[in-house]
Design a protein that fits this description.
- By secondary structure, this protein is α+β, with helices and mostly antiparallel strands.
- The protein has three domains: 1-164 and 285-327, 2-Layer Sandwich (BirA Bifunctional Protein, domain 2); 168-266, no CATH class; 330-380, no CATH class.
- A hairpin with a 5-residue loop joins β11 and β12 (305-312).
- It has twelve helices and 16 strands.
- α4 packs antiparallel against α9.
- It has helices at residues 28-47, 89-99, 143-159, 171-180, 185-196, 200-209, 214-224, 231-239, 243-259, 313-320, 336-344, 357-367, and strands spanning 51-52, 58-60, 73-75, 81-84, 107-116, 129-138, 165-169, 227-228, 264-266, 276-284, 293-299, 305-312, 330-333, 348-351, 371-374, 377-380.
């Protein structure tokens, strides 16, 4: 699935001096927050049976890769063109095919790590280097499997204190309706983009240019408005003339039943219809205009079915900030015994590097440390 991430600062702010545009320094408070989120997500994924894997940051460049046009590329000493990892699904899919060729399926895997893209896109918060955690459910294709991922996505976000709404799409539904309307080639491709943008004005321009009937134009407009609760599936069913479109609506109904909780549906989602083979979903948190999570169903090379989702850690850090507990108090230990006592009590202890009390006092005040410990004896800074 496409990367999902965002900067933890306003996207218009330039990079710090001395580092490339689209990259950023991460300072200790944010680093600690992000690592806590990563650990919580990993624990949740593990509890659901998703085992961890790690894939190389360097890959062989390939025109067939879904992010090939946006990948950073380099040439190794043997002349081979390599690329920095730009999304995880392809890499984890390769691992599944080569390391688990016979399963056992379903294969449940989780990952976490850094991604790189050459382009600065608003969807990624203007970052070209960012972090993701995610899961892949490989080797099965059913409404039960899709619902499992929705349940896991919801559980993972709740476990880090984020109450997000889940939105389901099915890019192939739009394509099927366009096909049933007799639209093909470049015209169909352009309408995909117009519908995905929910641009009625662009739909009208394209319809007039291609001489589409009033009935077909009305159908196209209806596609842009297919957003809401369960009633959207009824509206979609009314537009579904062919077998592909009807099957998409039926599958979404089955997924909704297996999930058993309220969902939002956006059946005008049409972007990357050539990549996703079934359900897609996103999770939105209040206050953020970009999803904290995104995923969907796809087919790996060789036809092996897969589905999964990725969580952008930078964006999640913004959404979860209020829910994370404060860091433990930091104290200054004047000896090793004091450090051991403090750490046994769940505190963070820095070790004094000098006997100069004036220097230690000045450092403690600047660092925000209010207590010292020697052995088992505590004292307030400056006392």
């Amino acid at each position: 699935m496409p990367p999902v991430s965002a900067s933890a600062r306003p996207p218009s702010r330039p990079s710090a001096p001395g580092i490339p545009e689209g990259t950023r320094d991460v300072l200790p408070p944010e680093w600690a927050q992000r690592e806590a989120l990563r650990a919580r997500l990993a624990a949740t994924f593990s509890a659901w049976g998703y085992r961890g894997v790690e894939v190389p940051a360097l890959e062989y460049a390939s025109a067939a890769h879904p992010q090939d046009a946006l990948a950073f590329k380099l040439i190794d000493s043997g002349g081979q063109v390599l690329a920095l990892r730009s999304e995880f699904t392809t890499a984890v899919g390769r691992l599944a095919r080569t390391r688990f060729p016979a399963g056992p399926f379903p294969l449940r895997l989780q990952y976490a790590g850094r991604l790189w893209l050459r382009a600065l896109t608003s969807e990624l918060g203007r970052l070209r280097e960012f972090n993701q955690s995610g899961v892949e459910l490989i080797g099965v294709e059913s409404a039960h499997a899709d619902a499992e991922l929705l349940h896991l996505a919801d559980a993972a976000l709740r476990d880090v204190g984020v109450d997000a709404r889940l939105e389901l799409g099915f890019p192939g539904f739009v394509d099927a309706v366009l096909e049933d309307a007799g639209l093909h080639g470049h015209a169909r491709e352009e309408l995909h983009h117009a519908i995905d943008r929910k641009s009625g004005a662009d739909v009208d321009v394209l319809a007039r240019r291609d001489g589409l009937s009033a009935g077909v134009t009305a159908t196209l407009h209806a596609l842009t408005e297919l957003y809401g609760g369960p009633e959207v599936l009824d509206e979609a069913a009314a537009l579904a003339q062919g077998a592909r479109a009807r099957a998409a609506v039926t599958h979404l109904r089955e997924v909704a039943v297996h999930f058993g909780r309220p969902l939002l549906f956006d059946l005008g989602v049409s972007r990357r219809y050539d990549y996703y083979t079934g359900v897609t979903f996103r999770a939105y948190s209040p206050g953020l205009n970009q999803p904290v999570l995104g995923g969907g169903r796809y087919a790996l090379e060789g036809g092996l079915p897969g589905a999964g989702f990725a969580i952008g850690l930078e964006r999640l850090a913004r959404a979860a900030a209020a829910a994370l507990p404060p860091e433990p108090e930091v104290v200054l230990a004047l000896d090793l015994a004091g450090a051991q006592t403090a750490r046994a009590a769940g505190l963070h202890a820095e070790l004094a590097w000098t006997d100069d009390r004036a220097a230690l006092d000045a450092y403690s005040r600047e660092r925000g440390i209010t207590r010292w410990i020697a052995g088992h004896t505590w004292q307030e800074v400056g006392a």
